[in-house]
Amino acid sequence: MENYINIIYNPQKNDWKELLRGKNGQTDKTNENGVKLILKNIMESGDKALLSYVKIFDNINIKASELVVSEKEFEEATSKISNELSYAINCAISNVKKFHTAQKSPDISVETMPGVTCRQKSIPIGKVGLYIPGGTAPLFSTVIMLAVPAKLAGCKEIVLCTPVNKEGKIAPEVLYCAKLCGVDKVYRVGGPAAIAAMAYGTESIPKVDKIFGPGNSYVTIAKQLISNDICAIDMPAGPSEVMILADDSANAQFICADFLAQLEHGNDSQAVLATTSPSLAKQVQSLLKEQIEELSRKGYIYESLKKSRIVVLSSAEELAEIANEYAPEHLIICTENYRELAEEIENAGSIFLGNYSTESAGDYASGTNHTLPTGGWAQSYSGVNLQSFTKKITIQEITKEGLKNIGKIIQTMAYAEGLDAHAKSVSIRMEE
Known about the structure:
The protein is 45% helix and 17% strand. By secondary structure, it is α/β, with parallel strands linked by helices. Strands 1-11-10-9-12-13 form a six-stranded parallel beta sheet, sandwiched between helices. The longest helix is centred in the first third of the chain and has 19 residues, at 83-101.
């Protein structure tokens, strides 16, 4: 039987970027123009345009008043959740709360010179919009990852948009988590239309100050476009990806399982194994055939395998280098020296250490956040955390003594920049 994925041996470092990502992460201009039109129409026509896109993309006919989920629907959703799932969800919420509560940082106050006091305080972002994908799977775990820190941060209003399933309904798990985590309103709309509605506001959906959440390439394009125009976003978070670093100490069965767990997200996901062990690479290549047969989402996996890679490197030193070049959303390190290797990683969304730290733990219940930068954006973005839902304000207070101490410094610098009005604002006070 033909192998589902080829092994690439000792590629040149100059070829790593193209080899790993190819065209992944690059914006398709045709898609971008289509998304721009959606944003423009919703900005100009509000609910009228929004409802037309709900009909086109989600295949449902609803009135504007039906966009928002009713209290009765929340109650019905709760009744459909099993005790086992309810327990699991509550455990996950508890762990996410613990980890994000620990991220709270105190306001600071520093006297930089006698009489010159500088402060910084955290303020929660007022209105936040959460986007929850739901096209191929009901990602209720993302509700937990976004709503829990939003509530902890003290955001005044939390709204959520998510597409309906094939039956024209929102998954009960999504509604159950939204209610449990303190979401104020849930709207049945997905894709770029949902991003536009939250960014510009419509008659039914309020305009928010910042939008959070992952999505497909169209959602990512929409988020990037509105971030250049009117609304802040958490980060570019598109198709999911994992890189696994491994040596002979790794377990091939575990690696194969993590590989496939990533690929079942959708047909545009990507998994990369970088290893110093040719024998491990061949084991994983062979096991893929065996493990795929046990899975239900084969169609997505087969498509995503086309974008995935197994790379054999010539030295252990190259493992950290290739990871930093790829800047993965998720990075699993299964090497004998995994803790030391982790210290060399500068570009990654979230790191998982050792043979037993499955990436699925971070997706659901360990406590870290699973909303992470993709497409190489981990080089400059962090994953969602408590601080993502706050903004910092600096405050300064200068006494007469402080102005005497700092005034001459300000004047000297102002004159050097040719801004004499700045200098005058000091001298007029000094003269008094």
